[in-house]
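Researcher: Final request for today, and then I'll write up notes for the group meeting. The sequence and the SMILES for adenosine-5'-triphosphate follow.
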Amino acid sequence: MSGERPKTFLEFIEEKPNLKYFFTGGKGGVGKTIAAAGIAYYFASQGKKTLLASLNPVHSLSSIFEQELWGGEIKKVEGAEHLYAVEVEIDDIVARYKQQLSERLRWFLKWADIPVKADDFIEIAATNPAFEESAMFDKMIDIILEQRANFDVIVFDCAAVANAVRLLGLNKIYNLWLERMIKSRQEALSLRAKLSFRKDKVMEEIKKDPLMADLLNLRRRMDEARNFLNNPETTAFFFVTIPLALPISVVKRFIEMVKAFEIPIGGVFVNMVIPEEAMKVEKSEYMINKYKEQQHYMEIIKREMWPLVRAVIPLFPTEIVGIDMVAKVADAIVSWKPS
Ligand SMILES: Nc1ncnc2c1ncn2[C@@H]1O[C@H](COP(=O)(O)OP(=O)(O)OP(=O)(O)O)[C@@H](O)[C@H]1O
Ligand SMILES: [Mg+2]
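Model: Predicted protein-adenosine-5'-triphosphate complex:
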């Protein structure tokens, strides 16, 4: 993989003028949120109306921007023109999902004459971790379908990369599952029509079948979602890592996973890299060792994923808090040149 000169973030986006949906993922604490904020800030500063959406159950946009962005509503980010943000509230979505599922399940059990209480099923389904993820995935699709006409760019800050990839990968699994469900639902309904003496009544019932309507509606949404989620001209998934063994191996593993799910890869951001200039005046053995350790892992990154690197973001002297700091991150992302 090494040798080839990487395309910078700026070159990458200039080559793809229709890019609209950005995702960041990576191991916990590596800088997914600051990278998403930096990307969003950059586009907003270019006059593009930009939405930064946090899909992470543990939000941090409010603390990064030092303003109240929670509550699940899209809010204008004060102090940054064209920039909006939303911290998606997972609890509401899970509750709503549960409610919807229980209505459908009750209806289905009654329809199929199955004499059991739906509540137990719903509890089991809702405690499955995939339930939360699929609720989040649905919300992401909602945001895209509802907001794509209102925004030029939408940047999603995802939870840990496993979640993010599953979140996007669900699309494919969802689709397979849907096809099966629709088919078996059609079979069940036509069988019922065949067996009934009152065909007209059954046909009426079929037309009103809420389960079928749900499935068809879901399929329509998924088809629409696939049009852009798997499209490398509109969508790019960025991995964030730091120069350390574990985050690098996480990124390598997930690059493979993402490929299998046909999710378009934007590239890799290497974050928290101690700048060489800082080392010219640095005397402490501790910092010198840290720097050497990072340089060792930078060599590994160069060897194993260099063509995918789109930016190296320096370790700043303080944490990233406030618009001015986010602007510096954005600047680091777009001004990076490979050496
Ligand atoms: N380049 C940097 N220089 C200095 N501090 C940084 C840098 N990148 C990130 N930080 C700080 O590190 C912490 C983690 O960053 P961030 O919240 O973006 O990570 P994350 O991957 O989103 O974490 P989580 O997995 O918890 O969502 C924050 O306090 C942030 O301010
Ligand atoms: Mg985060």
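Model: The chain has a mean pLDDT of 84. Residues 26, 28-34, 56, 60, 271-272, 313, 315-316, 319-320 surround adenosine-5'-triphosphate (ligand 1) (CB under 6 Å).
Researcher: Thanks, that's everything.
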